[in-house]
Amino acid sequence: MNSLTDGAGDSMIFGAKLISSERITPETSKVEVRKLVFRTDSLYFDSQVGSCIRVLAPGEYGSAHHTRLYSIADTEQSDTGAQFEICVRRCFDIDEASGEEFAGVASNYLCDLKPGDEIKFSGPVGYPFTIPKNSNADLLMIGMGTGVAPFRGLARMIYEKHGDWKGKVRLFHGARTGLESLYMNDINNDIGNYFDQPTFKAFQVLSPRPAFDAPIALDKVLERNSAEVWEMVNGPDSQVYMAGVKQMHDMIDNTMSRIAGSAEAWTAKRDELIAAGRWMEVLY
Fold this sequence. Notes:
The protein has helices at residues 105-111, 149-161, 218-224, 226-233, 248-260, 263-275, and strands at residues 13-23, 33-40, 52-58, 65-78, 81-89, 92-94, 101-103, 118-125, 139-144, 169-175, 200-206, 239-244, 279-283. The protein is of the alpha/beta class and 284 residues long. The protein has two domains: 8-125, Translation factors (Elongation Factor Tu (Ef-tu), domain 3, Beta Barrel); 139-283, Rossmann fold, CATH 3.40.50. It has a six-stranded antiparallel barrel. Strands 11-10-9-12-13 form a five-stranded parallel β-sheet. Helix 3 (218-224) packs parallel to helix 5 and helix 5 (248-260) crosses helix 6.
């Protein structure tokens, strides 16, 4: 299965310089997500959308490094190195016993960087999001939160690099609120660049009660479009991409089981897609 795994290919340590850091959630949102663009001069780093890098943030309590995986959202590779983009949400953890809030080590380190600062990282980890050669193939993208980041680069590759795409391209993305929709909010609407493509359609779903941390109803919007979703996964050369938090895995499995008519029918279809290399996922 083309999913996120740690492998031997990420043992080499690279350096990269921060080119730009841009907040892509509005200042009015409590959630801060930043788009960070880095440049590495190493010719050995294979930068591809959907793969991950392992950032080596400064360690704590005697550890040399604190590591964290981030998916590559967009990239440009050349004969002088690579420029790549990652999407980082500034995180805070709550101690269940004391209720004390602690800043996430890697995310705050990255969000506080200034242009010109350098990081160390290893990778790539996992598999890139590849595009089938057949431009009639249907492409189904399912993401949650910062999981939408690689789909921005994927859409750019589909329409800007591969030209006229005839197959259906559908993006289902969940966020807590409209302000946290990253590339689909009023300030940053990069994905809106592709709305005029006749084969592209995006579905955005929000939490019904964000103030109470109600679950994002991504399953509901998939079920409302169940006929098209099922037709797409059964199409010849169709490809399914999934990116986001690990918790969404069971939700998507349960939803697709209902769409397929049974858990057995969905398991058989998913296994078929995996065996053919047509199911790709990055879950953190």
